[in-house]
Design goal:
With about 120 residues, the protein is mainly alpha-helical. It has a two-stranded antiparallel ribbon. The longest helix has 13 residues. The termini are far apart.
Length: about 120
């Protein structure tokens, strides 16, 4: 007669953890922020300053690359893809540029099936 085979549930250690007690008195700050800055990927980034007024000498390569791609029409999703860095890194950098006041994020303009904007910009009247 063979030996009884152990199943995965037999090998699992069963213990109860008191969650409230585990976190009680834990005043240590987290090592990283719980919620990172987010950029709506359907937003349209626009320059907050003129191209000549941007501090090009203070920018790293990724920041400069992203700012050069901003045209006021392209959505954030297209800006963060197709770069040498990951889309996550690019999205974080877009958020940092907006926080520094170099970019503004505008809501996207909804277009109809024929490419005509469905929203009317009353500021241009």
């Amino acid at each position: 007669m063979g030996r009884k085979r152990a199943t995965d549930t037999d090998r699992t250690v069963r213990r109860k953890i008191d969650v409230a007690a585990a976190f009680a008195g834990d005043d240590d700050p987290p090592t990283s922020p719980a919620v990172r800055e987010l950029v709506p990927l359907d937003a349209v980034p626009v320059l907050a300053l003129g191209r000549g007024d941007l501090p090009w000498g203070e920018l790293d390569e990724l920041s400069a690359q992203l700012l050069l791609r901003v045209d006021g029409k392209t959505r954030a999703m297209q800006l963060v893809t197709g770069n040498a860095r990951t889309p996550g890194e690019c999205a974080r950098e877009l958020a940092a540029l907006a926080r520094r006041g170099l970019l503004r994020l505008l809501p996207p303009v909804q277009e109809g099936p024929d490419g005509v904007p469905l929203e009317i910009d009353l500021t241009m009247l």
